[in-house]
Amino acid sequence: MALSNIFNEPRREITETVIGIILFIPFVGLDYWTANKILEWGNCAYKTNNDFPCAPFLLEFLLISPIFLFFCIVGIIFISIIIHGLGNLFCDFLENRGIYLRPRNRR
Questions:
Q1: Within 10 Å of residue 63's Cβ, how many Cβ atoms?
Q2: Which of 14, 15, 83, 99 meets the CB 3.0–4.6 Å disulfide criterion with 94?
Q3: The dihedral of CA 62, 63, 64, 68: what is its sign?
Q4: Cα–Cα distance measured from residue 81 to residue 100, given in angstroms and rounded to the nearest whole number
Q5: Is residue 54 part of a domain?
Q6: How many distinct structural domains can be found in the chain?
Q7: pLDDT tens per residue across span 2-12
């Protein structure tokens, strides 16, 4: 999926990229849904706290946001590794079935 070998094995790399994009779309939707739920929670907490209106804002942006950002970065790396592995499995499956994505004559 990284297109690191595009000039030597173009068919395999393009196939891995297409599979990676297809598998990544549901994760983008899940990330969007999760972010909206977190923002709804933050807005609800901000509107219902009349004594200290800045407390949920500080709680959300100083405590929860860095933790959430860390898990998002780790999650993206983890998901990318999984998607790349699934792309490799799919290409190997095609090669076992007789569809050769790698060139047979190496330079």
A1: 10
A2: 99
A3: positive
A4: 23
A5: yes
A6: 1
A7: 556 777 778 88
